[in-house]
Amino acid sequence: MTNLKTILRDAASDGLITDEQSAPLETYLAGKGVGVVEPRLAVTVSDDPYGLDTAAEPENPAFESEAPRFIRGFHDILITIGIVVALIGASGLGSVFLLLPLTILLAEILVRRQRLALPAVALTIAFILSISAILQAFVEPLAPDTASEAFFVLIFVAPYPLLLAGFHWRYRVPLSLSLCIASIVALVVALIITSLGQVLSVTDMVESHRLLTLSILFAAAISLFTVAMMFDLKDPVRQTRRSDVAFWLHLLTAPFLLSTTLAFFYVGEISGLGFGITGEAGVGQAVLTILVVACFMAIGVIIDRRAFVTSGLLSMGYAIYAIFESANIQVGSFVFVTLFLVGVLVLTIGVGWAWFRRQIFKLLPEAMKAKLPPLR
């Protein structure tokens, strides 16, 4: 049996009302006594692959506010496996030019008509990969030998915003909107760096004007994080598509923002554009990296997004390893000790996530707490 929230969500999916009108309309109808009685133990599966129907479930203090709503059951997993295998086979039998029409055909059937959630994610990724392969076949021969890397990125990224916007308009997959936003930011960054390279008469901006390039990349990462938080703050209880868009944006932004932040501390090192740790990392670099990663983890706990925790695991693991190696600590194996410590850290944060949020929330102002996802 369908509840009132699901009915309004379906109406929004069919274009009868907008997503913004759904919540206030539900409140109004509920205030007038309009509703759909649902058995206590009934479990409803919504036709909306990105909906969240918890009305029939008892309150759970361990409720997962960041549950991936694109995984609804093994049926979706089975279909997704079939998609991956079929597309790999098609690309091997034909070419990359066969991959794109097949992806669109499957999207029409599985996403547009059947509204399957996990296959929608898989087909969005397949759409990106097929477009990337086609663009690579055309862009590389057209790019002049003297062109900078930023110019190549500019030409390569230019079609993505329009293509992803069309894909999102047709199929309404949150991942496609997140990738569209990210591609717009990447296009702007490539355009700025290419233009500066022309003005300054340099081919490699990263090599010749490293601090300026890092500043542009850091500003881009902050912009993406700001957009992600805009989607998050509009849906603090995580019940609409805005939350799904924010989930993917945070997943894309967290490692990008961490890398650019760490790179500022090692601006003189070429490898600093990666994870901020060089091959000859000392204890000072390692400790600083751990502090930066810890700050990112705290941000993740505050905004209730695990992406900011997982994005720093590689950097923190390498930093711990560097400390052991520099201090000449006599342990059986640096690698396994590092893996053990990182694993313990992940388990501690994962198990105590709600407790950590409660402790940090005590330090935050009331105005900020009112806008953030509620404590569980």
Question: What is the element layout, followed by pairings?
Answer:
Layout: H1 4-13, H2 19-31, H3 74-93, H4 96-113, H5 117-142, H6 149-157, H7 160-171, H8 174-200, H9 205-208, H10 210-233, H11 241-265, H12 283-303, H13 307-310, H14 313-327, H15 334-351, H16 353-361, H17 366-371
Helix pairs in contact: 1-2, 3-4, 3-5, 4-5, 5-7, 6-8, 7-8, 8-10, 8-11, 10-11, 11-12, 12-14, 14-15
Describe this structure in words.
Helices cover 69% and strands 0% of the residues. It has helices spanning 4-13, 19-31, 74-93, 96-113, 117-142, 149-157, 160-171, 174-200, 205-208, 210-233, 241-265, 283-303, 307-310, 313-327, 334-351, 353-361, 366-371. Helix 11 (241-265) runs antiparallel to helix 12 (283-303) and helix 12 runs antiparallel to helix 14. The model is unreliable at 37-63 and 268-279 (pLDDT under 50).
What is the structure about, briefly put?
69% of the residues lie in helices and 0% in strands. It has helices at 4-13, 19-31, 74-93, 96-113, 117-142, 149-157, 160-171, 174-200, 205-208, 210-233, 241-265, 283-303, 307-310, 313-327, 334-351, 353-361, 366-371.
Helical/strand content category: mainly alpha
Gyration radius, to the nearest Å? 23 Å
Termini separation (Å)? 28 Å
What best-fitting shape do the alpha-carbon axes yield?
globular
Q: Please indicate the percent range of residues in DSSP E strands (runs of 2 or more).
A: under 5%
Give the mean pLDDT.
Answer: 79
Query: Main sheet, how many strands, which sense, barrel?
Result: none
